[in-house]
Predict the structure of Ferredoxin.
Amino acid sequence: MTTATPIPIKIYPRLTSGRFNTVRVLLVALTQLVFFGLPWLMWNHRQAVWLDLANHRFFVFGATFWPQDLVYLSALLMVCAFGLFLWTTLAGRLWCGYACPQTVYTQIMLWIERLVEGDRKARMKRDAGPATFERTARRTLKHTLMIAFSLWTGFTLTGYFTPIRELLHALPTFDFGPWEGFWILFYAAFTWILAGMLREKVCTHMCPYARFQGVMFDNDTLIVSYDSRRGEPRGARRKDDGATARGDCIDCGICVQVCPTGIDIRQGLQYECIGCAACIDACDQVMDKISAPRGLIRYTTESALQGHYPESEIKRRMMRPRVLVYSGILLTIFAGSIAGWAMHTNIKMDVMRDRSYLTRQTDDGLLENSYILRLTNTSETPRVYSLSAEGLPGLKLVGDQTTVKLGPTATETIAVRLQASPDEVPKGSHTVWVLVRAAGDAAPVLREKTRFFGD
Ligand code: SF4
Ligand code: SF4
């Protein structure tokens, strides 16, 4: 990567259009449709996606995740991390340019800015001129709309944690709980400051990914590049130029004007480049106008650009050791998570031994240990389970409840005792299991290990 281009204090990105811009607009629309729409979907008479922190459970459509399912959250985080590594190795900062929330929200804030303050030229002219009532009024309106949008994002994000319909009922009177009120305001301020005010500065100065993504690049990574062999020597075309006197770059500067981070891609790859391809769209339009082939700025690899292989080879070069390792890790995590989820049971149980005494003798002369069982039905269907024990000859489980009825996603705490004959239990501590069977099933659905103390 080359040294950074000096970045102007305030950037006024010029509006661009083209195929990559269309993809970006569609992605903004899709991600926002999902983000704003998901909390309103219902499933089984409750919010389809509800991260119910208060009761330690996450609902995602038909699946319910409990603290014991933390492994799936870890798997999800690993998939995100390795997915990003894989994506970056293959296609550079495509994530930053198209799907990162900072890019998406900055794009939305820029649309609001253009709507209220006009295009790039009008904004630059107004900002350079004297402070007028019109300028103040437009700025006030712009920030009012940005803050309103930010509040809506804060409200929606909080709606993933507190049912959004409850929040909506509280909205007219602002009768939110203290945490709900805090998070709505906090996330709104976060969105407004980062996307509305700081914008590209977050990508260039605050985002750690911009700093370490370079180590994931190699010469076969797809990056936005300027073809200097074709473009140089640059300069405006004149009628008296010879056919080969100049390269295809007419030095119009439009690729710099459309860049959201204000850099000049013709100076080589820079860490400020978020790979948004706005400069590709802009330059392609310039090439169309001067009847030159498109692609003076394009997605390509360092090796192809240096002529080590033709551009048609790029796809074939994608399969390289690093890509295969990341893909293998991702496939393993996927397969493990799916297999684990397919085998998981709808009942969870914690067995806690009563530590106030080790063992006691019943009136019948049996050795007895006491336990507290916490049973959770993780499904949304009522279920009935029977309890028993094994691990020592003649071991039996007794208590007021050896058959438990559990409502949907209900948790029940019950006291049970394990009893065994002193003739069958040697002194000391022994491993035993508490078994849970679904009504009518012979095989247990769950076996939890605990200790039984002999005399
Ligand atoms: S848009 Fe294309 S032609 Fe214009 S300055 Fe940039 S690279 Fe050169
Ligand atoms: S140089 Fe091109 S791809 Fe990189 S951030 Fe600027 S406009 Fe986007």
